[in-house]
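ARCHIVE CARD
CATEGORY: sequence design from structure
SOURCE FIELD: tokenized fold
FIELD CONTENT:
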């Protein structure tokens, strides 16, 4: 067959078929390796518990704790109709599909700016290469973050193209599967009129009520109470989980400045500080980041009066730093963030190129470091020093600085043809 004679439709079908076959070949061994202690077992068991009307927020069958909203467990019933291995294979195939769809939506969003098709394609290629480790890690552990990222990016795209009803629905669903997209939803609402606030309220109520109605009022309310007391409240009250591969800002600070078993083993503790001092440092950084987030929302709405993708880059980085739990497979969001950095690099003056070279070194280093590439000792050292955390923090303030102070409009990656009020629905 002469592939050069294939039209676009045939080429799409052929490529899609090949990708589907590859996803099956990849997913089968991953799914078969899932066991009772695997992360995916949490989702599968939550679906079974939901169907059997059992408590959701407890360790059952050796699985780790369930920390997702009741709405998510209602969705996870889909897994429970299959065996554990069958469900893991099925969702692994879906994760491969989500990866492809994420690339497509990221490309659509980037093309809404003044960047050329060639620039966007190159930026996505670089983003794909430098974020490959996180997607691979995510795929190996059969996680939900790829689905959440897809829902988030598709929601952003439909909002930018003024299909607000679909956009709000997708973002609310993403939030009720995993709470971290809440900041993106706030970002969208900051640019909206009362219609989007009304939509958000309706969808929020539905996502809360549906699990209650299906589980029964008594059990449904208990689920909400258990979710709050077992997951949300402890972090609200200052819970810290300074585990080796947790890259949230609080975890990073406590790993480096307080005693932990891993820190003693791999000798990455810089100095010991009182926990109150560490919490003060953490709160100062988070409060400054939160005020910066508010500044972005106000500046974009009332001063700049347009939408910049740099706002999204800042919000994604802030979300990871704020989260009490940020594992490496959560950082699939870097696939979207890295192209923003590359497109800025293409439009910056030679005077500031050095900054991007330094960022590039950090991105490349963090994209290749792992136990298989540098050995467990050096890899765990990098985890202990939380090199990923400091890169996220640096990227967060980079996006803030460029958005507020860059004189080159192309560097701000503004969305073209945005309604001045940023509230219009698609007609």
């Amino acid at each position: 067959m002469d592939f050069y004679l294939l039209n676009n439709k045939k080429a799409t079908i052929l490529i899609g078929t090949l990708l589907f076959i590859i996803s099956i070949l990849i997913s089968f061994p991953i799914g078969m390796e899932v066991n009772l202690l695997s992360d995916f077992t949490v989702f599968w068991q939550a679906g079974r518990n939901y169907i059997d009307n059992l408590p959701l927020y407890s360790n059952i069958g050796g699985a780790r704790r369930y920390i997702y909203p009741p709405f998510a467990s209602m969705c996870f019933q889909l897994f429970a109709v299959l065996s554990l291995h069958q469900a893991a294979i099925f969702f692994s195939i879906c994760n491969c599909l989500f990866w492809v769809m994420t690339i497509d939506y990221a490309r659509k969003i980037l093309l809404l700016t003044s960047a050329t098709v060639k620039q966007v394609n190159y930026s996505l290629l670089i983003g794909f290469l430098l974020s490959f480790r996180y997607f691979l890690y995510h795929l190996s552990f059969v996680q939900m973050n790829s689905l959440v990222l897809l829902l988030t990016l598709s929601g952003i795209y439909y909002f930018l193209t003024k299909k607000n009803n679909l956009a709000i629905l997708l973002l609310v669903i993403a939030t009720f599967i995993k709470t971290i997209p809440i900041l993106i939803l706030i970002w969208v609402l900051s640019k909206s009129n009362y219609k989007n606030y009304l939509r958000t309220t309706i969808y929020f109520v539905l996502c809360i009520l549906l699990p209650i109605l299906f589980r029964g009022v008594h059990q449904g309310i208990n689920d909400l109470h258990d979710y709050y007391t077992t997951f949300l409240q402890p972090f609200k009250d200052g819970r810290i989980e300074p585990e080796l591969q947790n890259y949230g800002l609080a975890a990073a600070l406590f790993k480096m400045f307080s005693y932990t078993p891993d820190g003693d083993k791999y000798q990455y503790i810089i100095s010991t500080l009182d926990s109150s001092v560490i919490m003060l440092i953490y709160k100062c950084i988070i409060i400054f980041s939160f005020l910066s987030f508010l500044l972005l929302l106000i500046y974009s709405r009332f001063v700049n009066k347009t939408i910049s993708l740099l706002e999204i880059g800042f919000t994604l980085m802030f979300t990871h730093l704020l989260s009490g739990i940020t594992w490496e497979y959560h950082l699939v969001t870097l696939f979207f963030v890295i192209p923003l950095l590359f497109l800025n690099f293409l439009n910056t003056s030679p005077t500031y190129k050095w900054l991007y070279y330094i960022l590039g070194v950090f991105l490349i280093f963090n994209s290749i470091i792992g136990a298989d590439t540098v050995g467990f000792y050096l890899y765990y050292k990098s985890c202990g020093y939380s090199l990923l955390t400091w890169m996220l923090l640096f990227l967060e303030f980079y996006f803030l600085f460029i958005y507020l102070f860059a004189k080159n409009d192309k560097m701000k990656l503004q969305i073209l043809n945005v309604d001045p009020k940023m509230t219009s629905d698609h007609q």
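CARD ANNOTATION: The two ends are 45 Å apart (CA to CA). The CA atoms of residues 6 and 14 lie 10 Å apart.
SHELF: design records, drawer C
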